[in-house]
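Sequence in, structure out.
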Amino acid sequence: MPKWTNEQQLAINHEGENIIVSAGAGSGKTAVLSERVLRKLKSGVGIKQLLILTFTKAAAAEMRERIRANIKKNPDLASQLLELDGAYITTFDSYSLSLVKKYHYLLNVSKNIQIGEASVFTIRENEFLDEILMRRYENPTSNFTKLIYDFCTKDDDSLKKSILKINHALDLRYDKVEYLTSYIDTFYQPDTIESYCQLYVSKLFSLQEEMQNIIESLCPLLEEKVSEKVYSFYRKFLDSKTYDEMVGSLDERAPQTPRNSEDDVKAYFAKLSELRKRAKDYLMYPSYQEMKDAIWATEGYAKEIVSILLELDQKMMELKHEEDTYDFTDISKMAIQLLLDHPDIKEEVKQSFQEIMIDEYQDTSDLQETFISLIANHNVYMVGDIKQSIYRFRNANPYIFKEKYENYQKGIDGFKIDLNKNFRSRKEVLDNVNLMFDLLMDSVVGGADYKASHRMVFGNTSYEEQGKSDTSHQMEVYRYDYDKSSEYSKEEIEAFWIAQDIKKKIESGYLVYNFKEENAKPRPCKYQDFVIMLDRSTNFGLYKKIFTYFGIPLAVKKDESIKSTTDLLLFSNILTFIFKIYHHEYDTMYYHTYASIARSFLFSLSDQEIFQTITGKRITESSIYQLAEPIAKELDGLSTTELLDRILTAFSYYEKLLSVGDIDSALARIDNLKRIAKGFESIGMTPSMFQEYLVELTENDQLDLKYKVSEDASNAVQIMTIHASKGLEFPICYFASLDVKFNMRDMNDRFLYDNKTGIITPYFKEGIGDTILKSLYKERYTMEEVSEKIRLFYVAVTRAKEKMIFVLPSREWDKGTDYDSKVSWSSLADMLDSIRDVLSPYTLSIDLKEIPLTHAYHTLTKKEYPTSFSHYVEEEISIPVKPIGQERFSKTTSHILSKQELRAMKFGEHMHEVFESIDILHPNLEKLSKFEKEKVTLFLKHDIVRNAPQAVYQEYEFMTELDGKMQHGIIDLLLQYENRYVIIDYKLKEVTDEAYRKQLDGYKKYIYQKTGKPVEAYLYSILDDRMVAM
């Protein structure tokens, strides 16, 4: 039995009211949650009486398996084991869908309702909006004419983008249609507009009070004359009682900081200057009345936008209803509507569950919270950590958690439990994190009063017992002086330095301690013990190249855009070419798509060959045309997915992917396209629409498709975004690219929507101007975005088990950690620079001269496993090449490869690379995985290999003329002895194919002709450890 802390035991046992458990990083919240379930089962509560909600299917599956493992240890609960697979341990989306399907007849939807692809809905939404706007251009209203005339210059693209963004934001309201229908009558009321203006002016009164406090602290430190100047300048603003009195009060030149002032005086003057600037920004309207008039001037624009949004929503819902296909947001709203419209069903659901458990509650959205509030019965158990709420872009609302936490803390509506003891990290790491976040995070900016309630407490004492070592585990903050004229970017410098530092740690046997390993004790670090975290994935490719240059395996984990690859363009061109043939349209696009396909990896034709085919009007004779024409003839009878399958087969797409490499990523991209194609079918869209969609996708920056890339990390340094690292842990964490600016572009859109300020539009009066609503929105958006970035940084540093290492450029910085400084932060580096005084004991300098910077990494092509060894004998072979038939000895594949065969081939290629990397004479297996080490060791025990040869040749490539034909081959391993040669060819498993014998006969004949000595040949099965003589 695990030993629970008092707080964990309380979280497991407390009953009878709503409970929120604030579980810090590494506090064992998942174990606590599953143990609570076990306790309930033991007390007689059935597993089907619990509703356990998570945010991902993976998390739900993990929770189910944890509960299964706990039940198996308790024979008395065997009956619950039979019920487990039918229990509601699921995601919000899946549970909502189950309710909608169960009561579909009350919602006027089919029981077989489907979930559609978001990207498919996006393309239809764009089409509908184009149609709606076109009708308005044909029959314009005065409001539409003014909207277009005032805010659209060359085209209406930016307006369309804004309308779509507003529409997506409004989709998150369960009452979207009702809200829009009543919006104008509700918002454009004198009292409503007055309340917004008063809120805006209150910001000025707050600044007034802040200025007063600073002046009272500053003036006693000044000479009398200077003090009088300061009072005199600010008095008018400070004495103002209304907005109109404040206007112009700060326009004159402010008193300057006296020469030779003390630091505290300088700081006060700097703060005054900053407050004055903010006040002047607020005073942008000539009068209070004009401030109100500006809002009233937007009514016509808002009416037109609301009208467009309602029509767009109606079109989309008609489409979804007709095709019986919806997105999960629709499903959530249906579930809410079901409960609101049918009190009996709401009561039935409410009484069905003894408790509702929600994991990762900090990521709850407004829709999900509304749904839970309808079925709750003072029995909601919420587990989460507001400090790790980092999904605002996925509609998470961390302030739901914050409000509950603060209310329950006061005993209002529920009970609060804190799990602050951390079992993941060393004490030094926790002390370092606490040191930083005592200053960085507070209740206003960050969402949690870190110092008062959220400091982490050291809990894993094994670090101080079995894991004790002399290695320093204090964080290290490395800074370097960057010259903008340098030939190297900051990203290159940081990547080179990190690679060099990891290399040094590996070579010096830097100790790490993995308390989860059997018989754990400090051991020399491995590549898999390191992770590099960046805020975004932009520079992952750069790191990959530089780490390859250093010979360090690096595994990338990220979401990749399909638009960054050739697959999308190639499929788009193949489809376009087929449709051109179908429509007999032999235009410029027909020639362009032919050339693109011919140049691709599918055919690899030279520009000269392509040019000759086009100018000679021989496209119809080409193999590309011969493959495409039969598909074009069948188009009328093909669905979109059938069309894709025909292309994949006819063009031998899977087989030819082998020439590109990175098979898994390519397969993931193709699966994504096939999934989208199926989505098109589900809402009645034709193959021609899919072809148009792919063309649009290649050309439209607003559309994108993502797929996950996760490379093998069995013994590799990992690199990932901070978002991707959530839930993971690593002994040593590097943090780089810290000065990359936050993306705040959204708040600068001309048209916006916000739950608190509604639809925000500019006004037009002798030019375009913003209303106070935009200012209020930007202030709130900035605070919430910076808060999210503080939480993101917290997630990053709490991944570290044993050490944190930060790398960033040096610079001047004068901001602190007060509210105004925090909301001005625009990068993670700003945060670190704002606490540089407390970081000083951990700060070190990087001497750029000691980093082996070079541009050579750009051109290096090196396998993951190095293949060159200094003692290997290399032989130059010079063979005259004649223009005669050419063949290869390797076995060829005569059928279209399946995805499973492709993956097997990729694994075979990987094992080939492992064997090629081994120094046969002096093997070093340290960098291999356990599986690889086992297979290589077995191979090296064979007598043929063990009897020391005079020379070893790896990947011996040759070309020679045999039987009147030019033959090409690559011998995996050639061993030279005094009186014979031995050829060994690696195979993953199968060694009986007759084609292999023919291949090795060719190898033997060539080596015999070259040396005149006897030649032996063997096939070696890596998986079966079989050496077969040929």
